[in-house]
Write a structure and sequence with these properties.
The complex is a heterodimer of chains A (about 80) and B (about 775). Chain A is of the alpha+beta class and about 80 residues long. Chain A is built from two helices and five strands; from the N terminus they run βαβββαβ. In chain A, β3 (about 50-55) and β4 form a beta hairpin. With about 775 residues, chain B is mainly alpha-helical. In chain B, β10 and β11 form a beta hairpin. Classes of the chains: A alpha+beta (about 80), B mainly alpha (about 775). The interface of A and B includes residues 32, 45, 47, 50 and 59 of A. β4 of chain A pairs antiparallel with β9 of chain B.
Chain lengths: ~80, ~775
């Protein structure tokens, strides 16, 4: 498992799980392709610190950092 | 935006289905005479829009909201799935984008599994510079027609329709994807029990039920096989991992397919150009995604739009020319024709009826068309460029504090054209809370109908040169007002839930001017329809009750006779309510607000009918010494007091009567308070800098003190919300009580002001 502080942008990670009880949030993530074992890449969005982009299937989706920390990721084997 | 109405069986209907922001609406707009909302941001289309094919009226196309997979997750996506499941249609055209092929093919796979895929159009082929698309790989996999198109090119569209027009569309067979053994066994065991009479394959329906598709689950419950389904799931021991495995199998299928379809190009001149475009995107992002530059830049862009629309040598000049050289001249010719009649009494009656009742108001409103055209052009351009998704990111920090997400800025921009599509767009919000709050605040955004009234009346307050700046300030004021009410609604209705920000970072696009011009034409057509139907009737009624009284017909040549008209009596209760706002004293202004309820433009046409135009209003204002603060207060109240009839109908459809009525009463109370503050504050400025003899000095001082108290309360309130995260439930409840007390205190202070003005009213 990788702690969020140590995340490298532009590096491939795989999704280990979603740490949230909010069904709506989990559904929304599933809809953009973020679910278990899916490969994702974190992207820096401008000079924002509270906003992070996640690239899945070639599409960058922007989320607040509070929500991004709920996505547990592991390093790509 | 037209909803699907035509259910004629003889018509051939083709559905346009695709993921979000792949260009379905652009394709639809080229194919049909109708227009579907287009914007370079995801989830612009929120309802099914139908249109007849330009070349054959017996063929219609239906543009459906974007959906990433048939296992939908939002309300607008549900529209698409239910359409595929329940409606009758002759074929499905799947649009995918070259840029997002990997995501879009997931939906293609779902459609193929469902057995309803007839054709694939790979769109934006003009931007596929660094790779080639091998359509044969797609044909081989899905066994349907595949076209490589650019939805902006008419030739490509005509070419893509050849199989459709030659009745050469293949009857699709469901595609079979092999899942894990356990799943396959489950499907073959349960498939036989599904007895639904729709187009979609039973195997696909079972897979969707496993994935948790709400519509399918509801269908199972209705056909009483839901318990069997649950038992079957239990007996086969299917768990979340197995369900995730379905998604993984689909993803692997697509990954393999994409490798075959997308082939990297060797370095050519085209790729060099593509890399240059990438650099341009990089630099544009440096500007528009800079947290310090983004918001000021966006405000400058909006100010520029307002400048172009209203400045005396741009939009203002065109409006002036149309009003004086065109419409006034035409009205003069008509009046001369009437005056040539011999009968004097008939001549007077006809002249008044045609000049004031029939044409006066309508011509005033028609003269605003140049403003609407410029505004729609600029806003559409902004929507299509791709800047909006960047602006959403910038505004999220601000909007989060008010219980909304950055995506709400899209509603605001759309609301400038008309509040109705802005409310429809709120359907795609990320949570129920955000949807309701976005719908509730959308009607407070200054729409084009209100903009024209501001443009008209601002000429009394400021010189023509600065009219654009005044209108821009009113627009910003409406956004601030909507945000404050958004904060209020969030805390009143959804205290425990927070907003969710999730938006797609789209590529910058060149605007499609064909769509923009089509949209401008349709906007003017809708405006004229409104003017002719509603403004005409409302205007005529106003004219009638202005020249009729309990004693019968009034002398139309005597302006003082109006005081005995029915209008004067109808206005009395509204005058009492609006008296503390400064403009209740004169019956003409409250009555123009009451009758503007069906469509806001009526307020301008009423002023034309009652006062005989802007000049007449100016003369009236100087005669009875109406202060500028009174007109400012009137415009503030007009801006927010109640949504127009069409907006209320759409709002009720989206969020129900409970929330719609909440919006109306909160809007009325808040606009009253805002107008009261504006009246007294601008009165204070008038006293300090213009006129020291006003008798409202005491009121104004109290008002400033109250505003300071309110400000302190809001600061305290904000601190309370930031602290509450670390508190126990008991303490939170105690603090909630304190919070209620603060609101009671706030209401009491406002009540004191109302009382002070009631005393003034009694004296009057």
């Amino acid at each position: 498992m990788t702690k969020f502080k140590n995340i490298d942008f532009e590096k491939k990670y795989y999704v280990v799980g979603i740490n949230s009880q909010d069904d709506n949030f989990i559904k929304k993530l599933k809809n953009i392709g973020i679910y278990k074992d899916q490969t994702i890449v974190f992207k820096k969005i401008g000079n924002y610190k509270n906003i992070i982009g996640i690239e899945v299937n070639g599409i960058i989706t922007v989320l607040r950092i509070n929500d991004v920390t709920k996505i547990i990721v592991g390093e790509k084997k | 935006m037209l909803l699907v109405k035509n259910r004629d069986e003889k018509l051939k209907k083709f559905l346009l289905v695709g993921a979000t922001n792949v260009g379905k609406s652009t394709y639809f707009n080229r194919l049909t005479w109708n227009i579907s909302q287009v914007g370079n941001i995801e989830r612009v289309t929120t309802n099914a829009v139908s249109g007849s094919f330009k070349k054959d009226k017996n063929i219609s196309f239906i543009d459906l909201p974007g959906i990433n997979s048939l296992n939908y997750h939002s309300e607008d996506e549900a529209v698409t799935f239910k359409f595929l499941l329940e409606e009758k249609y002759d074929g499905v055209i799947n649009i995918v984008s070259v840029n997002t092929l990997k995501r879009d093919l997931l939906l293609t796979l779902d459609l193929a599994e469902a057995g309803c895929l007839n054709m694939i159009n790979v769109n934006m082929i003009d931007v596929a510079k660094e790779f080639k698309i091998k359509e044969l790989a797609l044909v081989k996999t899905f066994k349907v027609h595949v076209n490589l198109i650019s939805a902006k090119s008419t030739n490509d569209i005509n070419y893509s329709l050849v199989p459709l027009l030659s009745n050469n569309l293949k009857q699709p067979k469901p595609l079979i994807v092999n899942y894990a053994d356990k799943i396959e066994k489950f499907i073959s065991a349960f498939e036989k029990k599904v007895k639904l009479t729709n187009k979609l394959a039973k195997r696909f329906i079972v897979i969707q039920a496993l994935l948790g598709n709400q519509t399918i689950i509801e269908l199972f419950k209705k056909s009483e096989i839901y318990n069997d389904f649950l038992n079957c799931v239990k007996s086969f021991n299917i768990n979340q991992n197995d369900i995730n495995d379905i998604l993984r199998t689909k993803q692997k299928f697509i990954d393999k397919l994409v490798k075959e379809v997308k082939v990297k190009e060797t370095k050519t001149d085209i790729i060099v150009k593509f890399e240059r475009n990438k650099k341009l995107t990089y630099w544009l992002d440096k500007i528009f995604l800079n947290k310090y530059l983004s918001i000021p830049l966006f405000l400058i862009i909006i100010a520029l739009i307002w400048f172009l629309t209203f400045y005396e040598y741009t939009g203002g000049w065109i409006q002036e020319k149309l009003a004086t050289d065109g419409l006034e001249a035409l009205q003069g010719i008509i009046n001369d024709g009437i005056q040539s009649l011999n009968n004097t009494s008939l001549q007077t009656w006809w002249a008044f009826f045609v000049s004031d009742g029939l044409l006066g108001g309508i011509f005033t409103v028609i003269s605003f068309i140049p403003w609407i055209l410029i505004l729609v052009f600029c806003v559409s351009l902004l929507e299509q460029l791709g800047i909006l998704s960047r602006v959403c990111v910038a505004f999220d920090r601000v909007f989060e504090r008010f219980g909304l997400s950055g995506r709400s800025i899209v509603n605001i921009i759309t609301g400038v054209g008309c509040n109705v599509p802005a409310i429809l767009m709120a359907k795609n919000a990320n949570s129920h809370k955000e949807k309701v709050v976005a719908v509730l605040v959308s009607p407070f955004i200054t729409c084009s109908a209100r903009v024209v009234v501001f443009g008209f009346l601002s000429q009394i307050l400021v010189s023509l040169e600065w009219s654009w700046a005044f209108n821009f300030a009113m627009m910003i004021f409406s956004i601030v007002f909507a945000l404050i009410l958004g904060y209020f609604f969030s805390n009143l209705l959804f205290r425990k839930t927070s907003s969710l920000f999730l938006t797609e970072m789209v590529n910058y696009h060149k605007p499609d001017f064909y769509v923009i011009i089509k949209k401008m034409v349709i906007e003017v057509y809708e405006f004229l329809k409104r003017v002719i139907l509603i403004v005409f009737i409302a205007n005529f009624l106003i004219w009638l009750i202005t020249y009729l009284g309990p004693q019968g017909y009034l002398d139309m040549n005597d302006p003082s006779a109006i005081k005995d008209s029915f209008t004067r009596y109808i206005a009395i209760p509204f005058q009492i309510i609006l008296y503390p706002l400064g403009f209740g004293e004169h019956w003409q202004l409250p009555i123009s607000l009451v009758t503007a309820f069906p469509a806001k433009e009526i307020a301008a046409s009423n002023i034309e009918t009652i006062f005989g135009g802007l000049e007449g209003f100016k003369a009236f204002a100087s005669q009875i010494q109406i202060e500028k603060s009174t007109i400012l207060s009137y415009l503030t109240f007009f801006s927010f007091y109640i949504p127009c009839l069409a907006t209320i109908v759409v709002m009720k459809k989206q969020i129900g009567w409970k929330y719609t009525l909440t919006n109306i009463w909160v809007g009325l109370v808040a606009s009253w308070i805002a107008s009261f503050i504006v009246f007294n504050l601008s009165g204070l400025i008038e006293i300090m800098f213009i006129n020291t003899s006003s008798n409202k000095m005491g009121n104004v001082i109290l008002m400033v003190l109250a505003m300071l108290i309110v400000l302190l309360l809001f600061v305290y309130n904000y601190n309370w919300y930031t602290k509450q995260k670390d508190l126990s439930l008991k303490h939170k409840k105690q603090l909630q009580v304190t919070n209620y007390l603060k609101y009671i205190l706030l209401i009491s202070i406002i009540g004191c002001f109302i009382w002070s003005d009631v005393l003034l009213l009694v004296n009057y």
